Amino acid sequence: MPDQLFGAMLQSIIDGAPDKAAELAQQALAEGVDPLEAVNRGFAVGIAFAGEQFGCGEMFLPDLLASAEAMKAAIKVLEPEMLKRGSRREALGKVVLGTARGDIHDIGKNLVATILAASGFQIFDLGTSVTPEQFVAKAKEVDADIVGVSALLTTTMAGQKAVIEALDRSGLRPRVKAIIGGAAVTSKWAAEIGADGYSRNAIDALELAKNLMGKGTALA
Amino acid sequence: MRPKIQLLSPDLIGRILSEAFELLMNPGVRVGSAVVELLRSVGVSVDGGVARIPERVVRQCLASAPRDFYLYNRQGEKAVHYGGDDVHFDPGSCCVQMLDPDTLEARQSETRDLVRIVQVTETLPQFAAQSTAVVCNDNAAPSAIGDLYRLFVVLQHSEKPVVTGSFSAAGLQGMIDLLAADSGSPDKLRQQPRAVFDVCPSPPLNWSEFGSHNLLDLARAGVPAEIVSMPLAGGTAPVTLAGSVTQHAAETLAGITLHQLAGPGSPIVWGGAPAIFDMRTGGAPMGAVETAMLNLACSEVGKHLGLPTHGYLVATDSKFVDAQAGAESARSAMLGALAGINMISGAGMLESLACFSVEKLVIDAESIASAQRLARGIEVRGDDVRGEEARGETLATAMFAQTGLSGEFLKLKETRALFRQEQYLPSPVIDRGGDRSARGSAPPADVFTRARTRVDELVSKYRKPSLPEDVLRKFQAIVDREAAREAGKAGVAAAPPGN
User: Fold this and answer.
1) Residues A134 and A76 in one domain
2) Of B368, B384, B371, B373, residue with least CA distance to B420
3) Which residues in B have their CB inside 8 Å of a CB on A?
4) Most CB within 10 Å of its CB: which of B68, B157, B377, B406?
5) Is A70 part of any domain?
6) Does residue B428 have a cis bond before it (omega within 30 degrees)?
7) Which domain holds residue A151?
8) Does some domain include residue A49?
9) Handedness of CA A91, A92, A94, A99 (dihedral sign)
């Protein structure tokens, strides 16, 4: 029975069906299935699959977002029970995200936040047009592992450099890793400003974040 | 008959505008604090930074917006007509990278790249205007005045009109001052503007603090503004093309309202850079046919309102100057010309606007010339070349009357008099004829190699305009002043940008 349930959970994530995912999560709780196991053997497998499918061009961003939303719905149902059992899913890491100063374009940053959150990272989203000081303050406050700065505009990319310099000055680096992204960002730019990594899209960002946390690719 | 392409029925344009007006009331438009009082003065409610603009107010503003205007060159001649179905092209704007033709890698763009682009653009009749094409990463001036510096470089090297823009509210005044120095006075600039400024709302439905500010400043200075709304269908706008055109209309109508309230009658362009949202990469594929369709449809709505129009075409998503680049750029050049879009920006751009190639620019110039030829259509010419009225306006019979069945058309006076009008004669960038296996001849070169040669030729043909000493001094003083102001803000010593 649980195997069938796990299969249905996986499918609800692939289908991007939040209502179905929440319903299956309820069912798992009612049947006494360990919520952590429901995540690891059911829902999270779905997210990993969706990521793979996206990577090879079979699934697209709207599909991926729907999968992430379904994941969120399932976790919301399971979380209280996990807390009760003291088996709260260990966060893969704490990530502070925001767009560079002067840049109000947040679509890429939001995608990364959604995908990372769905995959088990704890996200602290500072929103748009964030100053270097705000990044540093938040990273200190929450004891962040990673700071991610997004910039769409070529004119605001300098803001990414400013954040990295501020992190350096604050002494948070190298313990806190700095990653960047955005339409015009290249690996060359990332190297030039001394970032710990960059990614072209949200799925690569997940891979990057996991690697930086030394968690490799294994999710389940 | 001039060939024309239309994508929207009158009925659909009506629905687009009606929903756009609805959007301006609900959910309304985010506006910067600079325009709140202005909006309230005409009875528009602004609550929590969101304005709800009634159709009545927008209609009044549309009525005061000019239906057409001209941009002037340095000599004070009319050089670009924004209005009707006249079509002009200019290179793409504000790229940060340049394709190195030797390594085929993208590197940071520098002042020398901007100068080279301006030189090539100056010599090519296909481009009616210059643009502040690439960011000068080598420049030591504070990056906040990068926009001013680019215009400074372009004005020193060109006599054509300029499509430009400012990325900060503070930077705009320096640019207007620079243009006024070029024209002779702020009044002269107002009477015979040489530049148009792109001003961008942020999708969806957001006129940010600096966008609002720029609209106001441009309207008050009487310097033409070009609203460049950039909905990304499916990403930052409805996924349907019709839905994105509607959002574009709402954003642009809001912009025109702010602009005309601040400066009634000041020139304003219904422009845009709409694109679809790539569902794999999250990027904006500028070479996609749907992106071209969006540009055409948005322009149609503007034309329906009787406004000058602009679009972003002739760009590609390819990283190289290859077959994809040629196909995408030529296709959209044709479509834009057939749509009668007044100013079409984007030539020279690779990699979804992330990289500029001057080699692509000269190839695009050929596509543009072909598009311009197509847009002229099939013309019926009389035999007036002979000055003999008796012949009338026959299509072929008058010429056959001379040749009989001999087939000797090449000898006819008509042929010599008319072939330049009938045919666009391409530069050697376009390969026509020649024998690939002719003995003793050099092996045939591909288009990229031919383009490189052409760029070198054009650059050597280019002559830098000689600007009066006092104008140059004024330019330098303005740039120094702005650099010092910005440096003062940042608390570092001023580094005057060189030339």
Assistant:
1) no
2) B373
3) 94-96, 106, 135, 143, 146, 167, 202, 206, 208, 232, 234-236, 277, 279-284, 352, 354
4) B157
5) yes
6) no
7) 94-212
8) yes
9) negative
Domain count, chain A: 2
Nearest to A6 by CA among A54, A46, A41: A41
Interface test mutation site (partner B, options A54, A61, A65, A109, max chain B beta carbons within 10 A): A61
What is the rounded distance in angstroms from the CA atom of residue B305 to the CA atom of residue A8?
54
Give exposure, B10-35, as e/b (b: 16+ Cβ within 10 Å).
eeebeebbebbbebbeeebbbbbebb
Identify the H or E element spanning B52.
Answer: strand B50-52
Q: Is residue A8 part of a domain?
A: yes
Q: Decide if A155 and B135 are in contact by the 8 Å CB cutoff.
A: yes
Statement to judge: residues A72 and A109 lie in one domain: no
Q: Cis omega (within 30 of 0) on the bond before B204? A: yes
Instruction: Name the minimum distance, in Å, from the CA of B465 to any CA of chain A.
Output: 30
Q: Is the pLDDT assigned to residue B71 strictly greater than 80?
A: yes
ipTM at complex level: 0.79
Tell me which chain B residues have a C-beta less than 8 angstroms from the C-beta of A201.
280-282
Interface residues on A facing B, Cβ-Cβ cutoff 8 A: 54, 57, 60-62, 104-105, 107-108, 111, 153-155, 157-158, 183-184, 186, 200-202
pLDDT mean by block of 10 residues, chain A; 220 residues: 90 96 96 93 92 87 90 92 80 93 82 85 92 95 95 82 94 93 84 91 88 63
From residue B237, give the alpha-carbon distance in Å to each of A100, A201, B205, B253, B280: 22, 20, 9, 16, 17
Name the most confidently modeled range: A146-160, B380-394, B407-421: B407-421
Is A152 exposed, middle or buried (CB count within 10 Å of its CB: 0-12, 13-18, 19+)? buried
Domain boundary residue, one of A85, A116, A137: A85
* Token reading at B319: 């990283």
Evaluate whether B175 touches B151 at the Cβ level (below 8 Å).
yes
Shared domain for A99 and A207, answered yes or no, is yes
Q: Rounded to two decimals, what is the model's pTM?
A: 0.90
Q: Identify the CATH number of the domain defined by range B60-376.
A: 3.20.20.480
Q: For helices B241-262 and B55-64, what crossing angle results, to 10°?
A: 70
Number of Cβ pairs closer than 8 Å across A and B? 46
Question: Which chain B residue is nearest to residue A184, measuring alpha carbons?
Answer: B354
Residue A219 lies in a domain: no
